[in-house]
């Protein structure tokens, strides 16, 4: 049974603490790797939370850093134990973007720009099924169903009455015009977009064709922000075979500025709803 502890977040925080200990010791990741007879990339992955951390890893690193306070060691060991627990998404098998799901599950707010698709958190089951089927031609029916189930489960973050995710979505007009599945599916999807946009914690803006060139032309991206100040804001760039997570303040600032420009160039929330309504009518005819 999945634990309420978010293992992805535990790994991130543990990695941050281990990085602080290394920096206090005045050692480079390369020097630590040499001491432990492991690769430098392993140390880097442990520190950025992209690799599972065992209690043995923590013990060895604390030994290298000369940590003598047993309370600190015990606390880090407990974090390592919790980081190896399973989140709800593990019940669905091997999900390639499981790290992102873990971050999204714990995020307080999410800003997303989508160039050619309706954002996953706003998709209908039929649209999600058609998207998955079209973008993953070698997938089995079971694979597609599993991906759609995960996507629908993720939507619980924006429908949670107690702690909904603050979502801001800027969507390129092409995402509304590209037929996914069939016209009925597109009409249903447009209607759901409008309904979601009426929620006070969800803002949907359309970036119409006539704005011309804009900062989002390099591709889609997401910016996740967290309530706990220990958790750095993260830019997520989804790839075909691997994903990229940017946490350096300069990188996050660059994408945040890009997003502000996109928001300013896009139609406002009311005009976006009207635009989506018109597109829905076009899919009806």
From TrEMBL:
<dbReference type="Pfam" id="PF19054">
    <property type="entry name" value="DUF5753"/>
</dbReference>
<feature type="domain" description="HTH cro/C1-type">
    <location>
        <begin position="18"/>
        <end position="73"/>
    </location>
</feature>
<dbReference type="InterPro" id="IPR001387">
    <property type="entry name" value="Cro/C1-type_HTH"/>
</dbReference>
<dbReference type="GO" id="GO:0003677">
    <property type="term" value="F:DNA binding"/>
</dbReference>
<dbReference type="Pfam" id="PF13560">
    <property type="entry name" value="HTH_31"/>
</dbReference>
<dbReference type="InterPro" id="IPR010982">
    <property type="entry name" value="Lambda_DNA-bd_dom_sf"/>
</dbReference>
<dbReference type="InterPro" id="IPR043917">
    <property type="entry name" value="DUF5753"/>
</dbReference>
<protein>
    <submittedName>
        <fullName>XRE family transcriptional regulator</fullName>
    </submittedName>
</protein>
